[in-house]
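During the reporting period the student researcher (J.K.) took over the structure-prediction task from the postdoctoral fellow and processed the backlog of single-chain submissions. One of the processed entries is reproduced below for the supervisory committee.
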Amino acid sequence: MKKNYVNKSLYYNLYIERLSLFNVITHLLPLLLKNNKLNCYYIDITNEALKTISFLKHFFKFRCEELKFKLIDLRDGPNSDSYRYQVPSIDLFKVRQMISNSNLYQSFCHKKYNTHRFPEYLLQAISNKHMIDDWRAPYKAIMIIKIVNWHMKKHNILRSVLVLRLRPYIDVIIQYAQEQKFSINIKSNHAWLPYILKLKNEIKRFPWLILLVKKIIFFYRTKQWVSNAWYRENKSVTQSFVASVGRGHFHFENDGLNTDAFFCFQSKLNPRKIIFPLTASLPQEVLEKLFSKGFQPINVYYAYNANLPVFIGPKQLYVRKSFPSIINNKKSFPEIFSARCCMNEYNYRYSFWREFFTNNAVKVYLSWYRYDEDHIAIGDAIQETGGIMAMWQLALDVLPSIGMSIFTDVYFAFSTWGKNIENQMGSKISYYVATGFTKDYVAPMLRSLALQKRKELQSHGAEKIITVYCENSCSDERWNYGHDLQRQNYYFILEEVLKKPWLGVIFKPKAPQTLRKRLGDINMLLEEAEKTGRCYVYEDVSVNGCASPSAIPPILAALSADIVIHPHLSAGTCGFESALEGIPAVMIDREGYKSSPLYQLGIGNVVFPDWPSCLAAIFEDWNSTNKNPYFGYWSPLLNDLDNFRDRRAAERMGNYIHWMLEGFDHGFDRDTVLANTAERYCKKWGYDKIVSIP
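J.K. obtained the following C-alpha cells:
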C-alpha cells in the first residue's frame, strides 16, 4: 500500500475542465517538455485536442484521459450529503456572500445607475444557474473543484493543478477553494474567450425591433396583423385582474385532475377576473373551454393563437440604465459582460411586464416558478404599477437551496415551518401566508377512480398493491442521476410482482412521455408484468389533445394502494401528500440527502437506504402479526408541514387573492390592500399564520 502511494505521488497530475487545442499548447505541452511523468484528466475535450493528444503520445509517455465519475458517488463519506445537495445548500451560499461583498459587485450596484431590485436580480442570476445550463455559473466550478478533490483522495494523489475556464468571479471561486483548504493548485485559463455580445441579448435594447419581428411572425402564423402590441375587447378600467402563470395544466374542470385554475374553483374568486398569459399555441377545443369557464387568455411572448388578445412585447424600455465607462478594465471583462447581459435582460423583462400590467388592468401577478431571477424583474414591474406580486408553494422544500431564493409581496406556503428555510436562503417576503397543502382538496374527488383501478388489479389476483413514484432522468451520469437509478425503481418491484401472484404495483412517473425509452431493457420486464393485469403505469400526458405535464395528480395513484414508495428522498412531495391522506409512505435515499429532516421519521420506519431493504421491510410488516406502529408513519411531522390539514388550502389561497382584488376595486392603494387583506386573513385563521421574512 505504501509503495503504491509513493509511486503515484511521483507523477504530476493535471486536471483540465475543458481540454482544447489552446490548453494543449499552453498547459499540457510545456509540462511534457519538463516532466514525462504526467497524468492529465479532463472533464470535456474538443475534437482538435483529442487528435492532438493522439499525435503527442507518439513522442511522450503520459496518461491523458477523461475524469470518470458519477454524480451518485460524489460525497465525502457514507453519512454525508451528496455534492448534488451539498454545493447548492452550503458552498454556493458562502460563494454568493463573497461575491456580494466584492468591490466589483458593489460597483455594479451603485444607486446612480441601478434601478429597483436589480442588485438582487444580478446576484440571483450570478449564483443560481444550474451547472448543466451554463458553465459560467459558480455552481459548476465549485462542483469540479470538489470532484477533483474527491478524485485525489480516492487515488492518494498529493500534487495536482486544476485549470478552470475563465468565468465571472473566478477569483472569488479560487479564494473560496483555498479557504476550504483543498489540496489543489487552481488556475484559470486566461485565454481569449468568446464573450462576444450575443445578438439575442443585445437586441433586447431595441424593443421596437423585437415587436416588429414578432408581429411579422404572428401574421405568418395566424394571417392576422397585430396593429398594436396588445388589445382586449370590452376591457374594463374599473376592475382589477389577476394574471396567473400556470404549469401547463390546461384542464378546466373541478374534478380533481391537475388544473391551473385550482385556486379559483375552490374559492370565491371569479374566473372572469383571471387572465392566463399563454406562452404557447393551444388547440381550439382548449381555448373554447377556457372561454366557456370565463377565463381570459392572452397571447404573450411566442404564443400564436388566432382570435385572442395579444401582447407580444413592450413598445419601449421604461428603464434606460447602463454601466458608466469607469467600470471598464480588461481583468474584469467576464464580470462586466455578465452584468451587462443581466441588465439588458432585466430592463426588457421589467418593461415587458410593466406595459402588460398597465394595459390589462392587472393588479395581482401570481406564479409558482421560483427557480430563477425573472420573478424579481416582474415583481418590480407590478410594484411600479401599484400592484402586488404573489407566489405559491409547489413542492415540499425541507432544506435551503441557492436557486430558490424569492423576492415577493405575498407567498402562499404550506405552513409556517418553512419560514426558517426561506430566511436561510435570503428570501424577502412581505407576507408569508400559511395556507396548508394547496392540492389537499382533490382526494375525495378521485377516490372512486382510484377504487376502480384497485378493483381492476384485484380482479387479476392482486391482494396487496404498492404505488411507486419516480423522477425524470438523463443519460449523462456525471451531472445528473442517470437512467440506471430510475431503472432500479422498476426492476426490483417488477421482479417481486412476477414472483408473487398476490402482489400488484402502480407506477406514477414524473416524465411519462420518455419513460419507455429511458427504461431500456427493463421495459421488457415492465411489459411482462403488465400482461399479468397486476401492473399499471399512469402514462397520460395530454388533456383535450393538448400536450402538457401529466393531468394525473400523484395522489390518484396513491389512493389505490396499500403503501406508497417514493424512491427519491430529495423530492418528497408525493410521499408527503400520500401521508396527509393516511396512506403509509416510505422513502428511499440512494442519492445521499442525509441532512433532510425526513430522517427524523426513522431509518427502517420511513427512510431506507436502498430498494432491497425497503421491500424486505414492507413484506415483513405485511406478514407480521406484531405490527410496527411507526412503519410508514409521518404523523410527527405532518402538523408542522401543514398547519391546517382540513382540505381548504386552495380555498384560503383563492379567497386571499379575491380579497386583494376587492381592495383594488374599492380604490385602495397596494400597501393598504396588503395590510387589510392580511388583517382579514389573520382574524379568520389566526395571527400566527402570517409572518414577514426577513
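The committee noted the following: The longest strand covers residues 12-19.
J.K. will present the remaining backlog at the next meeting.
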